[in-house]
Amino acid sequence: MEYNIDFIIEEIVNLFRDNLKLFLINDNYLINLKEYCKKNLNLKYTPYNALIYFAEEALSDLVNCEYLFDFKDLE
After folding, report:
1. What CA–CA distance (Å, rounded) separates 58 from 51?
2. How far apart are the first and last CA of the chain?
3. Distance in angstroms (rounded) separating the CA atoms of residues 65 and 56
4. Could you tell me which of 56, 74, 71 has the C-alpha nearest to residue 21?
5. Burial of residue 30, with CB atoms counted within 10 A of its CB: 0-12 exposed, 13-18 middle, 19 or more buried
6. Residue 33 contacts residue 58 (beta carbons within 8 Å)
């Protein structure tokens, strides 16, 4: 059986992207990222260490949440 790895990766990335957008709306999640954005809104460059920190924070929040939303069309 052959799998379409690119499709699977894209689906996982979409799931993370959609849920991270919801987390940015919710005040209980990704607090550090929101504070950084408020303080540095005009900056176009985010230091590498800050990106790593935010990625770790986001993945930790995703892993520890009760459930993830899936916004794919049900066709």
Report:
1. 10
2. 24
3. 14
4. 71
5. buried
6. yes
